[in-house]
Design brief:
Length: 649
């Protein structure tokens, strides 16, 4: 038996090197690793040269205030100028920036010149609303071009955006507005999902009613559905469309804050991950160019993430646009009107790179090969995966059925906190293995350590740590620097602990093994067990709750809740009611797959809930060691109590 901190018994011996043809034309050649190895800091400086700087930096890295890094110190730039204006100035104004398709099939095509006017008008509108550099703006939008335009408009005037995923509840939006003390919300009447208009504005109304810092709400008309209207509300088409399309981008310091993005940690309170400008954009740009082999003149790139997640920030907005990419943006769900929607989109727009999540890939596998077969996918030349470990079966299916065996797959490991891709194959260089993210990118230093912080050797597992600062690293947790230090830098001294288990195989490839803390990964989205527990306990029927992530064939992990009811609340609908309550409190993605009503919860003598045992029950495994249980009869009670377990709809 393995004695590693985190064990993995999987062995994978298949290798898929890139074709000679792909390798020859690839942006990233093997020399990139040597360049970074020779002088890491100089390497990052040469990557920063990808951007247009208003003033050159004096120092590449200042780590004297560790763990808060400063990159390209003294440099000045405007992020929006880098993503928009400079392409127009270079003569690419007519190049399409966005091919956008709404779920009902309506389309918009926006060139870089048009994007420049739209972003400038939106920037002028924000200024008119009294937003200035450093102010926080919450963005709660569907997948429409205004989402990217709003982000870039903030960046242009130095306002800090906090995008909140449109699937989050009013309460989730409210708490994020409060934490960031945002002054403005940018939203829409609604968006299209699953064939109908789904409202957004009511959640904003509810959140803003309880948010004293919000002064105005800027509303995009997307669905034309009825909305309640208040004095603080203003329509985007009234305000933005009336603005001048001229706006001079102001240069900001390299360390000027660019955005806050909230993510789940091990406690109930989401963390506002803070990213700044120069270093973030450098790494987003560098990774997008090299990992996706982006050829701006000919490629049509498609990242299927929502802008509400970090993948949408770094690989729809900032990375791709800094590289002058032409990309596809799609509003809706993959099975509307049919399960071949994505594949038809790829054929229609001649998509060359597809970047998506394992949960989507597994869903498509389940739906069957007939749907991709309905479309011509031969335009694809590279496939990407992100958000959770991709199992070898799904990797092989992606390669064969979607990639026709001739597209390199890049399995990219990173986090909201890392800002950009950290571990990934280079598509023209690496001989990939199904299920492995392979090796740290040039410029990145990752190690695997044991409980004591000692590096483990090839063939062994442990905890993934990052050992050198990187340009797009988070600069802290908004309003709580002590928590930043405590969460990421206290487990192993001077090393960033990512919260993931990983192992080296015998050949030096990294295999990610999932979270080792109390954070679940559901469909590639992080949700904390504590957060769901707090939501459950806020319901009057619940006395106590414990939540675990159980392996799920499609979503990676499914949320399973064990709940002790208060006396008198044992009625037939209570399970459905609790599931809906969590969806309302946090958002539909946090809705438990199962709620099990139990008489007791297993606890250690110190009162800590033993989630390991609950996970065993949730996954129907034989129970693990129960000797540390305060009362070992509890597990028997729980197993018997499973008769009252409710499952998914
Ligand atoms: O557990 C890892 C998993 O997703 C976590 C980061 O989640 P989030 O901040 O929401 O960002 C997701 C998109 C970057 C990581 O700690 N994860 C992400 N990518 C991979 C992954 N696990 C395995 N393989 C990946 N490629």
């Amino acid at each position: 038996m393995s004695t590693d901190a985190v064990a993995n018994l999987l062995h994978e011996s298949r290798h898929f090197p890139p074709s000679a043809e792909f390798a020859a034309q690839a942006n990233a050649q093997p020399g990139l690793y040597d360049l970074a190895d020779a002088d890491r800091i100089k390497f990052w400086e040469s990557q920063a040269d990808r951007l247009s700087w208003h003033a050159k930096w004096q120092q590449a890295l200042d780590w004297s205030d560790a763990p808060v890094a400063k990159w390209f110190v003294g440099g000045k730039l405007n992020v929006a100028y880098n993503c928009v204006d400079r392409h127009v100035e270079a003569g690419y104004g007519d190049r399409v920036a966005l091919f956008w398709e709404g779920e009902p099939g309506d389309t918009r095509t926006i060139t870089y010149a048009e994007l420049k006017s739209e972003v400038s008008k939106a920037a002028n509108a924000l200024l008119q609303l009294g937003i200035s550099a450093g102010d926080r703006v919450a963005i709660y939008l569907p997948m429409i071009p205004e989402a990217a335009i709003a982000m870039l408009a903030c960046a242009r005037i130095g306002a800090v955006h906090s995008v909140v995923f449109g699937g989050f509840s009013a309460e989730a939006l409210r708490s994020r507005i409060e934490d960031a003390a945002a002054k403005l919300v940018i939203t829409a009447d609604g968006g299209y999902r699953r064939g109908s208009a789904s409202a957004l504005k009511p959640a904003v109304d509810e959140a803003v009613d309880a948010s004293p810092t919000i002064e105005r709400v800027l509303v995009v008309k997307r669905t034309n559905q009825d909305v309640a209207w208040f004095d603080r509300d203003v329509w985007w088409h009234d305000l933005v469309d009336a603005q001048s399309d001229q706006h001079d981008p102001v240069p900001f310091d390299s360390e000027h804050p660019l955005f806050i993005l909230y993510t789940s940690g091990t406690t109930g309170k989401p963390k506002g991950i803070l990213h700044t400008s120069g270093g973030y954009l450098t790494q987003a740009s560098y990774t997008h160019f090299n990992v996706f082999d982006l050829k701006p003149e000919t490629d049509i790139y498609w990242c299927t993430a929502d802008v509400g997640w970090v993948t949408g920030h770094s690989y729809i907005v900032y990375g791709p646009m800094s590289n002058g990419t032409t990309q596809l943006m799609y509003e809706g769900t993959p099975d509307t009107p049919t399960k071949s929607r994505w594949w038809k989109l790829i054929e229609k727009y001649q998509v060359t790179q597809l970047y998506t999540a394992p949960t989507a890939i597994r869903t498509f596998m389940k739906w069957g090969d007939q749907f991709p077969a309905e479309a011509d996918l031969s335009s694809l030349r590279l496939l990407g995966s992100v958000g959770e470990p991709i199992n070898p079966e799904a990797w092989m299916w992606y390669r064969e059925i979607i990639g026709n065996n001739n597209c390199p797959i890049v399995d990219t490991w990173w986090q909201t906190e890392t800002g950009a891709i950290m571990i990934s194959p280079l598509p023209g260089v690496s001989a990939t293995k199904p299920g492995s993210a392979m090796t740290p990118l040039p410029g990145i230093s990752a190690k695997i350590v044991d409980d004591a912080g000692k590096e483990v050797g090839l063939g062994h597992g442990g905890y993934l740590v990052l050992t050198e600062p990187w340009p797009s690293m988070l600069r802290g947790i908004w309003g709580d620097m002590a928590r930043y230090q405590e969460t990421y830098w206290s487990r192993f001294s001077n090393r960033y602990f990512a919260g993931d288990g990983a192992k080296w195989d015998e050949e030096g490839a990294i295999w990610l093994l999932g979270r080792v803390d109390d954070v679940m990964n559901v469909s590639g989205h992080r949700i904390s067990t504590t957060e769901v527990e707090s939501a459950l306990v806020s319901h009057p029927a619940v006395a106590e709750a414990a939540v675990v992530g159980a392996t799920d064939e499609v979503t990676g992990q499914g949320i399973v809740a064990f709940v002790i009811l208060r006396a008198g609340h044992e009625h037939d609908d209570v399970i459905a009611e609790l599931r809906n309550h969590v969806a309302k409190e946090i958002g539909p993605i946090a809705k438990p797959r199962q709620v099990m009503i139990v008489p007791e919860l297993p606890k250690t003598r110190s009162g800590k809930i033993m989630r390991r045992l609950l996970r065993d029950v949730a996954e129907n495994r034989e129970l693990g060691d129960v000797t540390t249980l305060a009362d070992s009869a509890v597990m028997k009670l729980i197993s018997e109590g499973l008769a009252t377990g409710g499952t998914e709809d």
